[in-house]
Write a structure and sequence with these properties.
Helix content: 55-70%
Number of strands: 2
């Protein structure tokens, strides 16, 4: 077995980033009614925009492909959580907007989301969260420079 005390901590973090992502998705998928973790993330990112974004803008903000975002958005539209309409200026562009059904779902599930976050960060101090947040942002930005940038 590995001696984690002697291992390069960067390798441990590298491995745990994948493990945390996988576990986060499976735990959220198991707890959330009607939405997958990825669908929930897309709709949360949608809420960061002041005006309904295009599919391209939403995909960029989610840091995922246009195709993956479109599949998630179409599933959300089928479930009634978002509306999709053509852009008035460019009919080829789709604009996405959260629906009233999403707003109701969000209100109904606010306590579950709050408890999930509380449980996830249990035993982690706010200073540790701030350090983790800062480190993850640096790593994320460093990834942009790999292979000549995005």
């Amino acid at each position: 077995m590995y001696d984690f005390d002697k291992m390069d901590k960067r390798l441990i973090v590298f491995g745990y980033l994948f493990r945390v992502a996988n576990r986060l998705q499976s735990k959220m998928d198991a707890q959330m009614k009607d939405l997958t973790a990825k669908q929930w993330f897309v709709i949360l990112v949608l809420g960061l925009f002041e005006q309904p974004p295009t599919l391209k803008q939403l995909a960029a903000a989610c840091d995922t492909s246009h195709q993956n975002t479109k599949q998630l958005v179409m599933k959300l539209a089928e479930k009634g959580f978002v509306t999709v309409h053509n852009d008035e200026k460019d009919g080829r562009s789709m604009r996405i907007k959260a629906s009233e059904q999403w707003e109701q779902w969000d209100k109904d599930n606010e306590q579950i989301a709050t408890q999930f976050i509380e449980s996830m960060f249990s035993g982690v101090s706010m200073d540790e969260v701030a350090d983790l947040s800062s480190s993850l942002m640096k790593i994320f930005n460093n990834l942009d420079n790999i292979n000549g940038g995005t």
